[in-house]
Amino acid sequence: MSGTLYGLGVGPGDPELITLKAHRILKACPVVAYPAPDDGESFARSIVSEYLDPSQTEIPIVIPMRVERFPAARIYDEKADEIAGHLKAGRDVCVLCEGDPFFYGSFMYVFERLSGEFDCQIVPGISSLMASAAALQRPLAARNDVLTICPAPLDDGTLLERFSSGDAIAVIKIGRHFARIRRLIDEAGLMARAGYLERVSLDEQKIMPLARVPDDKAPYFSMILIYKGAEDWIGNLEMPVEGMTG
Amino acid sequence: MSGTLYGLGVGPGDPELITLKAHRILKACPVVAYPAPDDGESFARSIVSEYLDPSQTEIPIVIPMRVERFPAARIYDEKADEIAGHLKAGRDVCVLCEGDPFFYGSFMYVFERLSGEFDCQIVPGISSLMASAAALQRPLAARNDVLTICPAPLDDGTLLERFSSGDAIAVIKIGRHFARIRRLIDEAGLMARAGYLERVSLDEQKIMPLARVPDDKAPYFSMILIYKGAEDWIGNLEMPVEGMTG
Fold this sequence. Notes:
homodimer; Methyltransferase, Cobalt-precorrin-4 Transmethylase, Domain 2; 2 domains; five-stranded parallel sheet; five-stranded mixed sheet
């Protein structure tokens, strides 16, 4: 009998922000796969490293940061084959996913290659979206607010249109798009209502008004939250939040 | 020294879908508050009932299902005073929140009354949004999709406008708005791309194409997910999903 493939949400960064279910499955799986950069540590693995056991087989899925689509697809093909080998041999495999597996996660690339052939279970995780609102100490959305989630790589026109509708906006996948996104938010007249968050729930967490971010760049694991109804609280962001650097 | 007020996300329903952090804090708090209906059990409390201890003081926050704004505000005022009494006496208090405390949660009504005076920490929880995508076995949003979250009580015009933009749409807080929402989704030409989910992650979970929901009503804890890019998978929703009744 084949093993089960688990898409395991490991949350935003704090090892305590994984679910009891993810923790149990992680400890029970003989094979653990995770995305990894071509230099440095896997963020997903680092979140749960204290729960791993040396007896577990690890499969890093190394995707170079800047690649064309074709090589990335080939890497996923190869790693899916490797995972399939374990599943066919009856071994359960969990794939670690930062945040939630199905909220803009890379797990879909493994899922789409293997879910047709193998039993697959998704264990949802705490998204950085919810962790960011918790860190800001401000509801993400309430009552009848419309909340819109916008990936930063979208073009200027689409982003400006989305910024103009809805009550609360989260901009994700910022990274190298930071300077452009900040300019667009300014253009939309929303700078005073935008908060910037980086590495939320970790010791090195940074939270500050977007207007006060000193650099013109941001890491991939950063987020901008725009609260259209907000008045002057963004400017006071230092006050209630620990780990603030702005 | 005053106690700390915790807003504790307890997830979508499965007791295993709470975080290690929420589990630890819940067990350590001498006082546990939670929203409750005026008849029947508190859903938030039922999720974590196995982790509670008889020595903990419980504070149900009973909000009648159909009340004017004023009495609800008065109830929150009274319960906030009761919680404040415990905090002033140095006792930590956790307030249980279905899903995530700051994602359309009622915790904000307690938070806005007490966070100015007391130390407050928010522990994010698994939202039913992520749990629904996990149950559907379909990414909620991927790559550069725009995801829009729409509360069902919004008026027809606003909802139709939101349905027409964005790539994926989640309609929440459905309850008595179900028949109207289904008609609007049909009007927008999106019926074949809409999935209906109820009581996700619990044994009584129901998942089916929206078109096949037999009744013209739905519970409050239900959700509709619209995947605009979906082709024919919604119609095949029975196949891969356990607990399906449609």
